[in-house]
Specification:
Layout lengths: L1 E5 L9 E3 L4 E5 L10 H11 L10 H6 L4 E8 L2 E8 L5 E5 L5 E6 H11 L9 H8 E2 L20 H11 L3 H14 L3 H4 L9 H33 L3 H36 L6 H10 L5 H50 L1 H4 L2 H70 L8 E4 L5 E4 L6 H18 L4 E4 L1 H4 L4 H13 L3 E6 L7 H10 E4 L16 H7 L1
Parallel strand pairs: 3-12, 3-13, 8-11, 11-12
Antiparallel strand pairs: 1-2, 1-4, 4-5, 5-6, 6-7, 9-10
Helix pairs in contact: 6-13, 8-13, 9-11, 9-13, 13-14, 14-16, 16-17
Amino acid sequence: MLTEIRCDKFAPGHQNIQFNSGLNTVLGSAGGSNAIGKSTFLWIIDYAFGGEGYYTLSDDIKQEIGPHTIYFTFQFEEQPHYFYRRTDEPKNVYRCDKEGHFITKLSLDEFRSFLFQEYKVGLPALTFSEITERFFRIYGRENTLEKYPLLVKPREQDEKAVDFLMKLFGHYNILSAIKNMEEELGVKFSQLKSRKRQQVDTAKIEMNQKTIESLKKRLQKLMKNSEEAQLALFGFDTQTFERIKATQKELNKFIRKRNRLQSQLNAISSNIADTNPETASEFDSLVHFFPNTDIKAFEEIEHFHKRIREILGEEMAQEIARLQPLIDHCDKEIKRLHQKIEESGLAKEMSERVLSQCVNVSKSIDRLEEETAELIHQKQLQEIRAEAEHKLERLLLQQTEKLEEIQDNINLRMATINGVVTEHQEIAPILQITPQKEITFETPGNTSEGTAFKSLVVYDLSVLELRPIPVLIHDSNILKRIEDIHLEHILERYQASGRQIFIAFDKADSTTTKAHKILEATTILRLSDGNELFGRSWSKHETNDINGRI
């Protein structure tokens, strides 16, 4: 937990601020004064947790305060850890001793990893900052908008927020598997149905195989008849004929091997030609129906897919380079064996008609075998792709089931918390997530501002109680809009959460008696006009200056 923040640029009474293990309140004045440092201090807390918003979102601190150092202390298992960050070196965090003396330098990512480990988040698919950016709701950050509690900013795509929930609830393995399958297929599942899939004619394969078998029998018969006739006619001895027969057998072996290698080469060449899908027309159609679509993001994704295809293309080119020499070797051997048969004299003496028939039948067999091998290869590829698509469908079904589970868990917890907060007088907010990862968050029958902000807090508390969210921050612009009686119960829920929570609030006197007591008891920093965080408010005229101009 965060136990302390120190800075010598703070006003004398605020230079060393100690924190509670539960609720911590930055309390403003009864008059609700602005520009006294409530939100600024929440940004400093965010800075201590590895955030980058402080000192970058506004030029006021840079101009009025200048570079300065924030010292802060964390304690885990009763062991203190001392650090500091310089505003002119925002990417570094320095480990120090209790007096602030330098020990070692950490990168910002290393520091966040330290917090991730010490808070025992246990979700390797997420980073510490990915969690805090959604649950540190400070004025100036777009996640304080009450209608979009799941989004980091209103322009964020729903899909990204839903993916965050999947990771937060421990289902990253499903997301990763879906992404890998879509990359393997080269297309998102939503586009599969719109693509025409060519079916391999299995009947053609069976017909070719039967024809090949028939032609081989015919060839064997022709060869047998020719052998017997030529032996009788030209008086070749049996040994000579057996040598020629063995040579012919070896020749047929090389012909089959060459046909097989050539089929593999043709299949790879065909795949290379198919690895560059046209997407420009698809993007044009998308822009036509959705003019505000971020085409650049799609192009970046397509560029990634193109790179994957290039890598696959390189691998296929290497396979072609391996196959071609083998084919060339077969061609050389076939030529040699043909020459050997011709030199024997048998081929010259054979009947021209029989020889012609043998050649024609052999060519037909070669052509059909090559065609059949290609069809079988395409069928195998089709089966592999179909299995990949079925696997993707199963993964998407698992994702939908997990999203329904997450949705139900959050809604049940929100119903419980909302019942306590409203004393069962008001309907709880409802979260709905579609299989297409579209989000709806609303409180049925109640669109008032106070209810919307109350629902935002109820959502945060629900997720805080369900998952390992290390810390929660709510600024006054959220809490001041909530009805007093609801606020009282929310403060009680904060205290009972078992987590460290930081809030900013003013006009404590206008709340219920019990809420006022909680706010006073948990105050770690009290600010007001004349008692600002940095000792002054540069957004207001000095009294003497005003008097001087009167």
